[in-house]
Design brief:
Distance between the termini: 38 Å
Radius of gyration: 21 Å
Helix content: over 70%
CATH superfamily: MFS general substrate transporter like domains
CATH architecture: Up-down Bundle
Number of domains: 1
Number of strands: 0
Order of helices and strands: HHHHHHHHHHHHHHHHHHHH
GO molecular function: transmembrane transporter activity
Membrane topology: Multi-pass membrane protein
Number of helices: 20
Protein name: MFS transporter
Largest sheet: none
CATH class: Mainly Alpha
Subcellular location: Cell membrane
Strand content: under 5%
Structural class: mainly alpha
GO cellular component, one term: plasma membrane
Length: about 450
């Protein structure tokens, strides 16, 4: 029990990156009613302002994949924390629209780095029996970050220069993350891969205990005899299939429709006739629902398994999106039905695709290329996120709202079919057992 608490503490520190990840992607949504008229932005310009963060995410995820395999997991986490703090302040007090975009791109570099480093680090320090729950801690902190952004936006909406303070508020948790990350150990699996055996065994003994340490050392040694991985190795037989699968899993999480709600809830609820105050309050409800059902997911991910949660979630999300689209088609906005259906959709996403995606892509890749493979998959995730963030304001203006939600419903159903056919179950297996099982493809 003491060891599990130690692992939880380490995971919580690493997952601070997830909290800032969630804060940075969500804070923009609250600035929309104020920043759009401030800079007189068109729908396309609004899409670029929101999506510019994900240009940085794409760059950051690729750079981090190289850095984390060369320098370890801990040093890039420290750099990401520093960038989070500086970029939050500079976005808030940008002197021009161009400088705001530049700082959003730099903030995205930190988000992209954290999206790889936090789940990767947690997966590598956690024993198999609790790894799903521990990696889900990262998703928990992401949704806490999202909720904190929504609360901050709501509370700051009435102050002068509100959108500037909304952006700047992210510097507070970023500074705390920067301090705490100095106190976590390096990943034992990375230490083994670099030949630092004594240090790796010391870390494993501290977090797993001597008995579990010997078992994990034996498993790790089986998979570290191969030569050092390179980007070319990602396309070798036995690895290429897993990389493509990881990309598909990552991309479909982003285009499922949930992030359209997180990023552009004010636009969605404005289409239903709500005023600005109601739009921002709806975001708090979305964030709270997201948090509660992420806690549910942490109870289920190791008990029910990854594949079952992902399949059920994608199918149920398709159903909720269809119902939301019908609300817009029939102008059914009386009472709280639309809000209830949106909350049900977010609850399903928070219980399934949101946390389990990160668990899966931190588990399925071979050890020698795990950092690079996660970088590629995560870069594709951010490319999809950019396309969604940039295109949604234009899409919902070009199509009708119901057509937009019907489109997302179709995407979720296609993903259900892919999950059923191609995605393996990885629950309650060591990373090395998963690697050996995936090597048959």
């Amino acid at each position: 029990m003491k060891k599990q608490f130690h692992i939880l503490l380490i995971s919580l520190v690493a997952a601070f990156g997830g909290l800032l990840f969630g804060f940075d992607i969500a804070v923009f949504s609250g600035t929309i009613p104020f920043i759009q008229p401030y800079y007189d932005l068109s729908n396309a310009q609004l899409g670029w302002t929101g999506s510019s963060l994900y240009v940085g995410c794409f760059i950051g995820s690729l750079i981090t994949g190289v850095l984390t395999d060369r320098f370890g997991r801990k040093p890039p986490l420290i750099v990401a924390a520093f960038i989070f703090a500086v970029s939050s302040l500079m976005m808030g007090w940008a002197s021009s629209y161009e400088s705001l975009i530049a700082w959003r791109i730099l903030a995205g570099v930190a988000v992209g780095a954290a999206s790889i480093l936090s789940p990767l680090y947690i997966a590598e320090v956690s024993p198999a029996a609790i790894r799903g729950r521990m990696v889900s801690v990262n998703q928990l902190t992401i949704v806490i970050g999202i909720l904190l952004a929504y609360l901050s936006n709501y509370l700051l909406a009435g102050v002068e220069d509100n959108w500037r303070w909304m952006f700047s508020s992210g510097a507070i948790p970023a500074a705390l993350f920067f301090i705490c990350v100095f106190f976590v150990p390096e990943s034992p699996r990375w230490l083994f891969s670099k030949g630092h055996t004594a240090e790796a065994m010391k870390v494993l003994a501290e977090i797993s205990g001597p008995d579990e340490m010997q078992r994990e050392v034996a498993q790790i040694e089986k998979t570290l005899h191969a030569e050092k991985g390179s980007f070319r190795d990602l396309w070798k037989k036995g690895v290429r299939y897993v990389v493509i699968l990881g990309i598909v899993i990552a991309v479909f999480q982003q285009i499922s429709g949930a992030n359209a709600v997180f990023f552009y809830a004010p636009i969605i609820f404005e289409k239903a006739g709500m005023n600005v105050a109601d739009q921002l309050f709806q975001q708090i409800l979305i964030g709270a629902t997201n948090l509660v059902f992420t806690l549910v997911a942490m109870r289920l991910v190791d008990r029910w398994g990854r594949k079952k949660l992902m399949q059920g979630g994608s199918l149920l999300m398709a159903g909720w999106l269809l119902v939301i689209g019908l609300c817009y088609y029939f102008n059914f906005f009386s009472g709280y039905w639309l809000t209830g259906f949106v909350m049900a959709f977010i609850a399903t996403y928070a219980t399934t695709l949101a946390p389990v995606t990160w668990v899966l892509i931190s588990e399925i890749f071979p050890t020698k290329v795990r950092g690079m493979a996660m970088a590629v998959a995560t870069a594709m995730l951010w490319a999809a996120c950019f396309a969604l963030a940039y295109g949604f304001p234009v899409l919902i203006a070009a199509l009708t709202p119901h057509e937009t939600f019907f489109l997302f419903a179709g995407i979720c159903f296609v993903y259900f079919l892919i999950l059923k056919r191609y995605v393996p179950e990885t629950g309650n297996k060591t990373l090395e057992e998963i690697e050996m099982a995936m090597a048959v493809h």
